[in-house]
Amino acid sequence: MSAVMKMADVFGFWKTPRKGAASDMPEMGLLDNLYWVYKSNNPITSPDTELDMSGFLTEAEAVLTPPQEGGTKALTISFAGDIIRTHRAEPAKDVVYEDIKDLLFDVDLSIGNYESPVTTQPLVDEVIGDAGPPTECASAAHFEALTSHEGKFIDVLNLANNHVFDMGVEGMETTLATLKKHGIQPVGVFDDPAQSKLATIVDKNGVKTGLASCTFGTNGHSLPEGEKRGVNLAKLTSKHQAPDLGLLKAQITHAQENGCDLIIAIVHWGHEFELFPRRAQQLAAEDLAESGADIIVCHHPHVAQPIQLYKTKAGDRTVPIAYSLGSLLWGFAHEKIATSTILQIDVQKTPEGAAISNLRATPVRWHAEKRDGNVIQKVSRV
C-alpha cells in the first residue's frame, strides 16, 4: 500500500478527483480503497473539470430576498455537519461548543447529521485503513457531549447516513430512544417502509417546514430480514448509474401536498475528502431544486465544499445548495478535515408562505487543548 501511495504522490495520479471512483462500500475495489486512504491523508483540492462553479458563493453572507411587504422575520435555522464521536469530547461536556454556542444553540431551529449510533454494547474503537470503513458508535454520555450545550440539544438530527447500522438493531433502537428522551426530532429513518416517502414536518414560529432526507448507502450493513424499521436509502452516488432521486422527490411532493412553507432536502452522498462536488451531484442537486426543494444541505465528504446559489429556471426562487458542510466534530487533525461550515439561514414569514432572506456561512474548526488535566476537544470559529 505504501508503494502505491508514494507513486501517487510522486506522479500526481490523484491530485484531481479520480474518474469513476466508487464511493459506496459494496462497489469499492482495491484501487478505490487505496484512493480513499490516500485522500484521508491528502484531501483532493482540485475540482472535477466539468464542474460549473459560476454560482458558488464567494462571500460569507448573502441576501436572497429583501424584506417583503407584510413579511416578518420568523426564524433562523442553523445547519451543522457530521457529528462523530471523539474520545476527547466526553470529558469536555459543555465546553466542546462554548465558543460557538450562539451559532448552534441560540437559534430557533438547529439541524445536524449524527453518525455515531448510541449503544449499550461495548464501544468499538475507530480504525482508519484499507480494510473497510470504520465502525462508529457512542455511549449515552458521549452523545450528550456531542449534541448539547448547557442542557440545550440540537433540535433535529439526520440519521440517514452510512453509519446508521454500525451497531445493528440495538444501536438504532438505542439511538432513537436517546433522541426521544432529549426531545430531538430524528430525520431519515422510519418505523415502516411506507413512511420512507413521507417528509418529516416541523412547525416552528408559524413556519411549516418539510424535511426530506436520504443516504447513498449504509456501508454494506443491513437490518435482519423482516425488520420493518429502516433508513431512507437510494443509489445517490453509484459509479454505475446517475443519482436516483425518486425517494427524495416523493418526500418533497409529500411536503408540498401538506402545505409546507419551506422544504429542506438533507442529502448524504458524495466522495469523501474531496473539496468539490462532482458534476453529477451538481446536476442532481439542481434537479431537486427544480422539484421544489428550497434549501439543500449535504454531508458525507468530511470536508467543507462550496455553497451554490442556484436560480431556478422559472426565476422565482434562489436555492442555496451546500454540497458538504464537512464534519463539525471528529478526531482527525488535518486542517481541511478539522474545518467545517455552520450555515445559518434567516426565514421570513410572508402572506404567500415563507421566503429565505439572509444566508451566513461561518467556518469553524475543532482543536485539542488541555483543561483540568484532560486533553479535550472543542470547536471554535476560524
Walk me through what this model shows.
The protein contains 8 helices and 19 strands. The protein is of the alpha/beta class. The chain has 2 domains: 2-41, no CATH class; 61-381, Purple Acid Phosphatase, chain A, domain 2 (4-Layer Sandwich). The strands form 4 sheets. Strands 1, 2, 3, 6, 7, 16, 17, 18 and 19 form a 9-stranded mixed β-sheet that branches. The radius of gyration is 20 Å and the shape is globular.
What's the gist of this structure?
The chain is α/β, with parallel strands linked by helices.
Features:
six-stranded mixed beta sheet, Metallo-depent_PP-like, Purple Acid Phosphatase, chain A, domain 2, Capsule_synth_CapA, 382 residues, nine-stranded mixed beta sheet, CW_Biosynth-Accessory, alpha/beta, CapA family protein
Inertia-based shape: globular
The total count of helices amounts to 8
State the assembly state of the protein chains: single chain
In whole angstroms, the N-to-C terminal distance is 34 Å
The portion of residues forming beta strands comes to 25-35%
Structural class: alpha/beta
What CATH architecture of the largest domain do you see?
4-Layer Sandwich
What's the total number of strands? 19
Return Rg in Å: 20 Å
Helix content: 10-25%
Family: Belongs to the CapA family.
Domain Capsule synthesis protein CapA: 76-332
Pfam family, one: PGA_cap
Protein name: CapA family protein
List the helices and strands and how they pair.
Blueprint: H1 2-11, H2 30-41, E1 61-63, E2 72-83, H3 101-104, E3 109-114, H4 140-147, E4 148-149, E5 152-153, E6 156-158, H5 168-181, E7 185-187, E8 189-190, E9 200-204, E10 207-215, E11 230-231, H6 246-257, E12 262-268, H7 279-290, E13 295-299, E14 307-311, E15 318-322, E16 327-329, H8 335-338, E17 339-350, E18 353-371, E19 374-381
Parallel strand pairs: 2-3, 2-16, 3-6, 6-7, 10-12, 12-13, 13-15
Antiparallel strand pairs: 1-18, 2-17, 4-5, 8-11, 9-10, 14-15, 17-18, 18-19
